[in-house]
Structure formats: C-alpha cells, structure tokens
Amino acid sequence: MYIGKKLMLLGSGELGKEVIIEAQRLGLETIAVDRYDHAPAMQVAHRSYVIDMLDRQALREVVEREKPDLIVPEIEAIATAELVKLEEEGHRVIPTARAAQLTMDREGIRRLASETLGLPTADYRFADNYEQFAQAAREMGFPCVVKPLMSSSGKGQSVCRSEEDLDRCWTIAMEGGRVQQTRVIVEAFITFESEITLLTVRSASGTLFCPPIGHIQKDGDYIESWQPHEMTEHQLAEAKRIAGVITDALGGTGIFGVELFLAQDKVYFSEVSPRPHDTGLVTLASQNLSEFALHVRAILGYPIPEIYVTAPGASRPLKAENELGDYRIDGLEKALSVPQTQLRVFGKPVTKVGRRMAVALSTGSSVEEARERASQALKHLSIQGE
Ligand SMILES: Nc1ncnc2c1ncn2[C@@H]1O[C@H](COP(=O)(O)OP(=O)(O)OP(=O)(O)O)[C@@H](O)[C@H]1O
Ligand SMILES: NCC(=O)N[C@@H]1O[C@H](COP(=O)([O-])[O-])[C@@H](O)[C@H]1O
Ligand SMILES: [Mg+2]
C-alpha cells in the first residue's frame, strides 16, 4: 500500500471524519485523537488515541510516538502552548501553532482582529469575576452577549437582556465552558440582517474564497446553512477584505471559516476557525471540492485551480434533545426519498442535549428549493432510545 505522509488529527468529531476521508483519498496515513473513544473520525482513521488534549504531556507523548508529518487541530481545546513548542522543534502544525493558540480562546483572536488589525467587531469587554462581569454588561448595555473564553457551538453562551438576567447568564457561562475558568467576554449585541461564513483557503494557488455560506444559529449553534448566500457587491468585497486580513495574519495553509455579521451598512468580523467550519458541511453537497477536500489539498501544497458551487445547497443538522447512552436514528429511508438529498450520520457513541448527531444535505435549482428539501429531510429524522 502506498502511504505518502502521516496526518494526526487533534479532535475527531464529524468535521474531522470528513478530513480523514479526504486525506485517505490522497493516500495519507491517518491518526485520530480525541478525549473519548469511538469518536466519529476514529471510526475511519488507520489508528486512534484517547487522551486529554489539554494535557501538555499527554499531547507530546502521542506526537513523539507517532511522529506525524502534519498535526491538524480539529477543535479549539488543545494544549496549544505545547503545539507551539512542538512546532519550534520542527513539527508542522496546521495552519500554524500560533493560529491554533490565538483562536483557542476568544481573547487572543478578538484582540488580534480588533486591536492589532483594526477590523470592525462588536464592542467587547473581558471580565474575571461576577462583579467585573456585571459592570461590563452595564457598560455594553442590554441586550449583550456573554460567552466563556473557551467554548464552541454556543456552549455557555447567553444573551443578557436586563439587570435581572445577570445571575442567570453568569451561571450559564460558568457551567458551559470547555475548561474550568471564570474569565468571560461580554459583547455588545449586533442587530444583523444575516450572518455568513466566508470559507477562505490559503494554498499553493494563493488565497481563495468560497462563495459565501449563509446560516441561522439558535442558542449559539447552527441549525441551518446554505450556499450561496445573496450579498451586495460592496458587502462581498468587504467580507473578502476582512477574511483576507485575518487569514494573512494567522498564516500557514489550509481552510479557515471566517464568521461575519452583515448589518445594513457594515460588515462585522465575529470569529474565525483555522480549520473546517460546521456551517461548511453544506459544501459536501454544493461545491466541486468540499471544505474538507480543500483543507487537505491546501495543507499538502497541491494546487486548487478553482472553487465553484455545482448546485445551490443547504444543510440541516439533527440535534439530540435528550441524553441517551444507547440510541438509534430513525427515518433515514423517508429522508433519503427527498430528491437531491444525502445524509451524513456521524456515529457519535452517545447523545447529549443539543449534540449534533447527523446532517441532511440537499441541493436544488435555487437556494430556496435546497433549503426546503433539507428541511423536509430533517423532519423525517428522529433519535430514539434503545
Ligand atoms: N455580539 C453578538 N451579537 C449578536 N449575535 C451574536 C453575537 N455574538 C454571537 N452571536 C450569535 O451567536 C452565534 C454564536 O456565537 P459564536 O460564533 O461567538 O459562538 P461559538 O460558541 O464560538 O460558536 P461556534 O464555535 O459554533 O462558531 C453567532 O453565530 C451569532 O448568531
Ligand atoms: N462549532 C465547532 C464544531 O462544530 N465542531 C465539531 O464538533 C465536534 C465536537 O462535537 P461534540 O461536542 O458533539 O463532541 C468537533 O470535534 C468538530 O467536529
Ligand atoms: Mg461561531
């Protein structure tokens, strides 16, 4: 068997599963790492390890044991200081160890974007304890958005609507972060018309932008995405400018999900993932090369001659409503009877409230048709306890 290089994925969820599949298509040997066993990407990788990825020593041990050519972070919560050291010692971290470190928590990336690069963002304050938090919220005004520094998919996030809401929001933030810490960010609430992810690829072919992906979020997590999203010429130009500036500052090669809010006359930078983005799952159906294929091509230094939408597409994730140790997903047959529709079932070992378990992907002759189909397909799916 020809195996070119060894790729180690740090984080092995649904996004990583697709990365591993694409890596294997180009002949790579793949290793999946995560904090729990039987994670989605582990089910398709050549080998896997279960470690606490926030533990510097555990991370070093697995890297030294496998000596991968490429270390590919898939989630934020990794001991990124150790990644910086490993990079200094000659290991290659995607896109760069500094990018992983800056985006690991909200403070690094927000200060870089706003204070160093001068990109437009919501006003914000950081707070270390309840008193500072209450003061920050009053300064931002109500409503404002409260988030733990290290969390994703909306965990620990809430909108604080009034003085009376402070206690509730503080408790949510303290209970929802990925690590035990009290520091939070309080952001001014932006009333936007729509929000997008501008997938941006840094590659041997230069910096390329995918057509914009529109999405809707509920409780800080995405519930629907579609591509392409309609934007004015001015909005698109500004979105590309912002994405170009932030991805140049992070450097390296690979795909980045640049999250932007589109308001009446302004485009705001929200955050960036230096890796495939959940809303970009739609590209599995709608693009000539998915965001996962693009990530792998870019990090291997291969050319990307063009990126285009093959058909307008939409995605709808299936989220669990209960915590179940043993579960099955019902309704696949009906969902797959919807025209131009595919499913990805992630194979996560257990459900949790709000956990994304599968996704419906549809295309159509218009974004509206694709959205309608994905929503039809999703309605057929349900999660049952065994
Ligand atoms: N300042 C804000 N004003 C208005 N809405 C906001 C603001 N910040 C976040 N949101 C809403 O909450 C969503 C999630 O926020 P954010 O992307 O910061 O969270 P996250 O936990 O990092 O999510 P993910 O990791 O899935 O990208 C945004 O996409 C947006 O819909
Ligand atoms: N917004 C970031 C995102 O979507 N990340 C994706 O979710 C997985 C964690 O899922 P889990 O919490 O269900 O284990 C991550 O591993 C990644 O694939
Ligand atoms: Mg986000």
Automatic annotation (TrEMBL):
Keywords: ATP-binding, Ligase, Magnesium, Metal-binding, Nucleotide-binding, Purine biosynthesis, Transferase. Residues 111-300 form the ATP-grasp domain. It catalyses: N(1)-(5-phospho-beta-D-ribosyl)glycinamide + formate + ATP = N(2)-formyl-N(1)-(5-phospho-beta-D-ribosyl)glycinamide + ADP + phosphate + H(+). Residues 3-386 form the Biotin carboxylation domain. Belongs to the PurK/PurT family. HAMAP family: PurT (MF_01643). This is Formate-dependent phosphoribosylglycinamide formyltransferase. It comes from Cohnella lupini.
